[in-house]
Amino acid sequence: MAETLHPAEVAKGAEGAVKDDADPNFMTSLARGLSVIRAFTEREPNLTIADIAKITGLPRAAARRCLLTLMQLGYAGSDGRTFFLKPKILALGYSFLSSAPLATILDPLIEQVSGAVQESCSAAVLDEDELVYIARAATKRIMSVGLNVGSRLPAYCTSMGRVLLAALPEAELDAYLARVVLKPFTERTIVAADPLRRELERVRERGFSLVDQELELGLRSIAVPIRAASGGVVAAVNVSAQAARVTCPEMEVQFLPRLLRAAEEARVLLVRSRGV
């Protein structure tokens, strides 16, 4: 599994959700189907029924029914032994992107930033405990695993994630720190709640986050928040670069001003669109 880039176990959306089925409005079958879809990753595009059952925590019979249903609907296929997602699955994500003014607004802005600095630029939002990419312009592949719109990363050790966590109300941040396991991705990763909390306070004070090789060795990134008219943080935008090519001070000088301008332009456009 692509654990480096997808540490949130998919199982929490499967059997964890089943515990809530006392609610007559809760559809356990739908929750199971979604957990099966999320089990597929870039490194594991082909999975057996046993694989799906292990990843999601579902019984094999339930995993099989979900897969066969997805096949009948055209969202999945099979080579006789393993299953894989088909292009039709993209329609699910497109429904969000085409209806979300935030993603529509940010896409051309990050293209401009990426073109100007000649580095990869991305935008993301916080979903549950993870960072989810909603727009991305990549000049080159700088990580061991490729990132695309819809990719998920841990929030605590990424620049955009820290910008978003720093904007949470204190009670929500306390709850996040209480439930999330801070896994070390490199020897630089902050894996204790108190140091992370101090770093988030620093992010709030400075107005940006710079993460130096905490997610992956050789990777640095700098991010700023995107605010709505109300002042609330609705997303984050960042620039990532190889550590061997750009120092941390250079990132602040070369990338931060452009990110701040893009964030302000996004805020203005969001106000005009009345989307946020």
Automatic annotation (TrEMBL):
Please list the residue ranges annotated as the IclR-ED domain: 88-272
The UniProt entry, under Pfam families, shows: HTH_IclR, IclR_C
InterPro entries attached here?
A: GAF-like_dom_sf, HTH_MetabolicPath_Reg, PcaR_PcaU, Tscrpt_reg_IclR_C, Tscrpt_reg_IclR_N, WH-like_DNA-bd_sf, WH_DNA-bd_sf
Any one GO MF term held by the record is:
DNA-binding transcription factor activity
Q: Which UniProt keywords apply?
A: DNA-binding, Transcription, Transcription regulation
**HTH iclR-type domain: from which residue to which, for each copy?**
27-87
Q: Which GO terms describe its biological process?
A: 3,4-dihydroxybenzoate metabolic process; negative regulation of DNA-templated transcription; positive regulation of DNA-templated transcription
Query: What name does the UniProt record give this protein?
Result: IclR family transcriptional regulator
Which species does the entry assign this protein to? Answer: Azospirillum doebereinerae
